[in-house]
Specification:
With 259 residues, this protein is an alpha+beta fold. The chain folds into two domains: 143 residues, Orthogonal Bundle (Lysozyme), CATH 1.10.530.10; 72 residues, no CATH class. 45% of the residues lie in helices and 13% in strands. The chain has eight helices and five strands; from the N terminus they run αααββαααααβββ. The strands form two sheets. It has a three-stranded antiparallel beta sheet with strand order 3-5-4, with no helix packed on it. It has a two-stranded antiparallel ribbon with strand order 1-2. Strand 1 and strand 2 form a beta hairpin. Helix 1 packs across helix 2, helix 1 crosses helix 4 and helix 2 packs across helix 6. The chain is globular and about 40 Å long. InterPro entries: Glycosyl_Hydrolase_73, MGlyc_endo_b_GlcNAc-like_dom. It holds the Pfam family Glucosaminidase.
Length: 259
């Protein structure tokens, strides 16, 4: 009797390990399968590959959802693609966070790559009424993949925790390694994004910066000066009263020339 129990436990334990191993393999295989097109398409559209991959994982459950299997739709995009669509039930959230089920038409794609390209097009071109609807996901506007993911909450999905879910996936599977050296666009855009984040809600500081902006400039960016508090790196050089070199992470960023 004791031998039988031990044998059962041993077999059960073996099966459990095998199940976990198989589950991990499916997840790894999925990421490896989509890695190349996700990186290429995301970078071509100035988007974060890590966010694109996280979306595919969340929306398709690692390619196991009915929508991804039947329609190559890995991002839960609604509508029709070249006239092709499938109707499925889907979970949505009200503005108050209450979950409910409904039926909707989703795009049906001929290939996985077509699904990735269409999602990139959606993020870059927004909606018919607002082309900048997803501008918060662009590398020129989002200071990090985490910021880009949070910009999708209550825009891309009705789930108010959507951005947090994406960031959890990015962290768990170390998807930031897919980003490599992303194209962040014009340095002026990154500086403005940083300034806006620092100055949000501080009207007194904003007034001081606007006054200073009217008397200075940074190279090709007209009448813009970066306040010291934007850069908090201990190794950075402070801005002098005259001409100075601003440093970020101990590397020269821009030269300030006062009139």
């Amino acid at each position: 009797m004791i031998k039988a129990i031990i044998a059962t436990v041993a077999v059960t334990g073996f099966c459990f390990v095998q199940a976990n191993s198989s589950h991990a393999s499916i997840e790894t295989d999925f990421i490896n399968q989509l890695k190349t097109p996700v990186i290429q398409i995301s970078k071509a559209n100035h988007l974060y590959p890590s966010v694109m991959m996280a979306q595919a994982i969340v929306e398709s459950d690692f390619g196991r959802s009915e929508l991804s299997l039947d329609a190559n739709n890995y991002f839960g995009v609604k509508g029709a693609y070249n006239g092709q669509s499938v109707t499925m039930s889907t979970g949505e959230y009200t503005s108050k966070g209450k979950h409910y089920m409904t039926a909707a038409a989703f795009k049906k794609y001929p290939t996985v790559d077509a699904s990735i390209k269409d999602n990139a097009y959606l993020l870059r071109h927004g909606t018919l009424t607002d082309p900048n609807y997803y501008a918060g996901t662009w590398t020129s506007n989002a200071l990090s993949s985490s910021d880009a993911a949070m910009a999708l909450s209550l825009t891309y999905a009705t789930d108010m925790n959507y951005g947090n879910k994406l960031n959890a996936i990015i962290s768990k599977y170390n998807l930031n390694k897919l980003d490599g050296s992303v194209s962040t666009g014009d340095i002026g855009s990154k500086i403005n994004a940083s300034l806006n984040k620092q100055l949000a809600g501080n009207s007194h500081t904003s007034a001081l910066i606007r006054e200073e902006n009217s008397r200075s400039k940074i190279n090709s960016v007209p009448k813009l000066i970066i306040p010291n508090f934007v850069f908090n790196d201990n190794g950075a050089t402070a801005i002098n009263q005259g001409d100075a070199v601003i440093q970020f992470n101990s590397l020269p960023l821009q030269r300030v020339v006062r009139r």
